[in-house]
Structures are given as structure tokens and as C-alpha cells.
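[#protein-structures] MJ: dropping Probable membrane transporter protein here for a structure pass
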Amino acid sequence: MDTAQLASFALIAAGAFLAGGMNALAGGGTFFSFPALLAIGVPPITASASNTVALWPASLSSAWAYRHEAMRHRRWALILIGVSLVGGIAGGLLLMGISNAAFSKLIPWLLLIATALFAFSGQVQRIVGWVKQKLGATVNDEASPGSIGGALFQLIVATYGGFFGAGLGILTLAALAIQGFDDMQDLNALKNVASAVNYTVAALTFIIAGAVSWPHTLVMLVTATIGGYAGASLARRLPALLLRRLVVVVGAALTVIYFYKTYF
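AK: finished. C-alpha cells for Probable membrane transporter protein:
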């Protein structure tokens, strides 16, 4: 292996480590790993498939690192696993039925909505509660954690995850926050459970389809897994306010980047 090849593998290894860590912390890790693959000359479709498979174990390790927090909401965690599985499959089928041009136009808007929902989730919760009280309903019924409404809401998010992976963590956090979860560590734990299931469905699809570049994927798989566990461990020690601000910053950055790439 010559110097250029070593540099290429070092680049994707570093990108995958950062991606695994960022996905565990706040989401948006694909912004580091996918461009790294493109930069060394991997074709876009192969890069996307390889990136998904490479980040799959990182999502599993992040979910494992947060297992104690997730088990505080055991029933809702099991519901999340079910709806994420169904939504991941549905989203993948939807993706096969849309053109690349139409899909690329949707990306920045999807990210903008997700970031805004998370940033203002507290205000949205208060508005929803006020409306329900005015209508004579209780605050904790239709879209509360573990309810049918909450499960349907998360199914929509999971379908998005199968349809478009980038920003999934931020959108999942937004959906969970609006449903009434306010502890940042619980939010991260449940987000990592849902993301792990989504990544599993997508990764198995790409592997079966034979769309993966294994030499690149195996290198990224190792460093992304390490980064995912390190990121989850770090997230558990960060102050809740700092972690929430980090999520908003990552979401805003992704939104600006995709708007620029799409419309300029």
C-alpha cells in the first residue's frame, strides 16, 4: 500500500470516528463520513451504502452505552424498536419510488423543520398543552410518550430515517421532546435506540443488494464504532443545556450546508 492509499484510508477512518461520535452526541455524523468517502473517489451511491453500513455498529454501540437510561422507559423503548423497524422498511421503499432531483430538493427543508422543532420543542409543548386544555382534553393523552399518537408520530420519523438518514438523530430528538421527554439523557438514550434499528434495516438492505465497498467499509466500521461509544460516554457527562445547544448548532449547520448545496 503506497502513501496515497494510506492517506485515503486515514481520511475515511478519521471521518468515521467523528461521525460515530457526533451521531451519539447530537446527530449529523454523516456530514463527516460521507464527504470523506467522496473525497477519495468512491462513487456516490457506493459511498452512501458503505457509509450506512460503516456507521451501523456505531449506532448499536451508542444504544448499548445508553442502555440504563433507555430502560427507565422500557415500554416506550420497545415501541420505538417496533415502529423504527416498520418505518425503516417503509422509508426505503419510498426512496426507491422518488427521483434523485426531487429528493435533493427536500433535504434542506427536512433538516430545517427538524432543527426548528427541537430548538423550540419547549414552546411547542406548552402551546399543544394549552390547546388541549382549551378543548377539554388532558395534556398527557394523544401524543404523550407511549401513547398511540406518540407511536404514530415516531413512525413518521422512522419512515424519514429509512427515506433519508442525514439528520435523523436531530429529528428523532425533536419528536421525542415534543411528546414530553425533557431529560436530555433520556432523549439521547431513546434516540440512539431508534437510530440503531433504522441503521440496521438500511445496512442489511445495502449488504443484500451488494452495494458496499468492503475495503473502505471495514476500516470505517472499526473507527466509527469506537467513536460512537466514546461519543455516548461523553454525552452522558455533558451538562444538559450544553448538549441541547450542541444539537441545535449541528442542526443549523447541516441546514445551511444543504441549502447552499441545493440552491446555490
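MJ: nice. The CA atoms of residues 66 and 189 lie 5 Å apart.
AK: one more thing. The first helix runs from residue 3 to 25.
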